[in-house]
């Protein structure tokens, strides 16, 4: 339970937060018609009589959308309803050609479930339901509002949490976990920039022992960072508003938009009847039934989820919590790691090379880059790690080899020879480098003799530099220590 | 305007974005009376033990494969629109939301 102490009054307030997350399902076609579900097409080129709401056009459910929605439900441990139905949510807006959204009202396809945060706290889900997306209205290009219906009819799942969250960090973590899971199971890209994940926040604050106070809905949150910032801002705003002696300044039930530039939330002007949706069952769509066998098959086919992998990596491979978390958070990276460990047999080294080198190389190329695009297969990485373990290659030379592998696509064994990076084991050569490193280092030598082992590091560094990374640092250390003892 | 359904008529008209003239409201309110009466009759029936009905069709689980089909030609889609701009439908600016 997060407490927020008011700066003005010293009172203790408790934030109450719930999230509604819309995710576009990764199907090839829309929910009720065969138009393509693809981002970035020319406006109004992926629209047909069904998704533009022409009279007489009939919707037919996409079986893949149901499959992906059920995967999401199983992955989040929800109770899938044996049958559900579709309802019309009626409202007028220029991006909604049918005049209603096809959604699920009183019989969603699943209820319950939840996500556990790292602290062990579980954020419970109220429900998830299937619905079709609205089109896109653009307001900032000229005097008119411009409408593109390509998005109209794209399948969405909306997951609604209980008001279990109490601060911005929990919201951020919940969203991160939800995104990981949906990406893992192939249900959604969850790309906020492309609008395939959208998040609304319900938020209020209350005093100890109180019932819930007026809640406010926050919209227009286009990154996880903005969700966090908007929640932090809104908690403070509401506390100040409640503590204002003027009652007319108190929070009211409303929708507020987050202004990214100014970092504040502001009232969205809306018509009062906007929320009278007059739901009723969609007469064009029959009931949807889900059998126990179907659910069992989906459960069986689900990949191991990030939380389970994280725990297994820490346990089986003795990885740090951080490494386990980084590796498990994307399915491609996790699969790559496991394949590389199978090849090298060295989990910790493999984890380090992936998290320190490969992922930074990938991130440098941009957020969309896949690990695969670096052109270093898991087997190739395993080979390089083996070369280091065998003493053929030093770690620092390994870094150069890996960079060359990314650049050329060649295998480590070939590059070691081509780049002349084979580790020098020859004692005569090593001794020469060590002797040179000790010249003029009387202070360091005295420190080492005094038992200050730290001083040796700088000397090894000298040797590595002189050898262009080819010296075996362990041997160099031995020789340096011997020389220091013999010295003077 | 004595009919108790007058506010309901006005609300429905507003939700449906219909402009209803004052003289029409009275007549519609009387229609509402008869329609609502009919439904009131339904609520008096004993339906305990009757399975709730979700639709008039005796169908369930009608699904299709996730296979793309051609969409409309954009020109055809946009042809009936009162105003078009750059391949978009152009409509009067709406105030709420910058989604
Ligand atoms: Zn369509």
In percent terms, what proportion of residues of chain B is strand?
5-15%
End-to-end gap of chain B = 41 Å
Fold-level CATH name of the domain at 6-42 in chain B: Histone, subunit A
Strand content of chain A: 15-25%
Cofactors, ions and other ligands in the entry: zinc ion
Largest interface: A-B, 62 and 41 residues
Mean pLDDT of chain B: 88
Q: Any low-confidence stretches of chain B, pLDDT <50, length ≥5?
A: none
Q: What's the number of helices of chain A?
A: 15
Rg calc of chain B: 22 Å
**Range of helix content of chain B:** 25-40%
Helix content class of chain A: 25-40%
Number of helices of chain B: 3
| Main sheet strand line-up of chain B | 2-3
Spell the H/E element sequence of chain B: HHEHEE
The overall average pLDDT of chain A, rounded, is 93
Describe, in plain words, how this protein is organized in 3D.
The complex is a heterodimer of chains A (488) and B (99). Chain A is α+β, with helices and mostly antiparallel strands and 488 residues long. Chain A folds into three domains: 4-293, no CATH class; 304-418, no CATH class; 427-486, Orthogonal Bundle (Arc Repressor Mutant, subunit A). Helices cover 39% and strands 18% of the residues of chain A. In chain A, the strands form four sheets. In chain A, strands 1, 2, 4, 8, 9, 10, 13, 14, 15, 16 and 17 form an eleven-stranded mixed β-sheet that branches. In chain A, strands 7-6-18 form a three-stranded antiparallel β-sheet, with no helix packed on it. The mean pLDDT of chain A is 93. Chain B has 99 residues and is mainly alpha-helical. Chain B has helices spanning 6-15, 22-43, 74-78, and strands at residues 63-64, 84-85, 88-91. Chain B is flat. Chains A and B meet through β3, α1, β11, β12 and β19 of A and α1, β1, α3 and β3 of B. The complex binds zinc ion (ZN). Zinc ion (ZN) binds next to loops of chain A.
